[in-house]
Amino acid sequence: MAAAGLLALTATSGLSNAAVTAAEKAHHAPYGHPVTLAEGDINVYRNGGAGPTMVLLSGYGTPAPAVDFAPLIRELDAFDVIVIEGFGYGYSDLDVPDRTVENITGEIHQVLGRLGVHQPVILIGHSIGGIYTRFYANAYPGEVSAIIGIDPTPATASTLETGTPSRIEGVLASLGLYRWVTSVAPDLIQPPGTAYTAAERELTAAMSRWNYGNPSIADEWAQLAANSTKSAAHPFPRTVPVLEFLSSESVASMPTWMEKHQRELADVSTHQLQVVNGAHYLHWSQAPLLGRAITDFVTANVATTR
Hints:
Helices cover 46% and strands 15% of the residues. The protein has helices at residues 2-27, 65-68, 70-75, 101-114, 129-139, 168-174, 177-184, 198-211, 215-232, 248-253, 257-265, 282-285, 287-301, and strands at 33-36, 41-46, 53-57, 80-85, 121-126, 144-150, 242-247, 271-276. The radius of gyration is 20 Å and the shape is globular.
């Protein structure tokens, strides 16, 4: 009897979640526009700035990258800022497998080509996005004018074996359990501080529930060690300027965090490493500081002709 009741409750929760999700998607107009590749549609947001092109790559699992980066985008309005939401992120397709570093960076390259971006770009990667910026700069030499890291993950050689993607998170999301937990504890999916508008916070919450545990994200997680190992095999190009911001909390909590980044940058001709007070998502709380430092670094080290 208890099992039947639990089953009925689970089914009701799943149906309710599906209905609420559909209503939310009807309420929120998609931002950006899709770029169609052979594998599916990738959503792209572009601010329309007139300066050099900057491509922003989010950290792992960020549900709505263009919204997540909004405070930093506002600080970089003099630049042509592009946020490419890879498969599994934002409004991009959520069920595209083979999230290898080669495929992820190759898709970024294809998207930029479809957008008509042919001059070298400034790559800005948060967290795991740092691994992709490094691999991209080596895969497409001459097409990157600078690399910016926001508490980026250092590439570490460990294994080329890939794990098995977990489906548990997707099941929890489809049954509405993730929605229930994050409704009870909304701070789990909301950035602290005052940098976001009420509309941005509402969309962040909704898209966290839509996208949590999707198949593409699960596959990317299973590929993480292999992708890091592949990136570690290729040092940063010596002639590409690199600016990295490290979170003070990451430096304090991980004794080798600073050392690993210093070692990666040792042979780069022009590089800066700056510790910024705050947690891992520095653009949540320190967007003005980051915006000024990025602008100064680009002005000093990157040709601004387009």
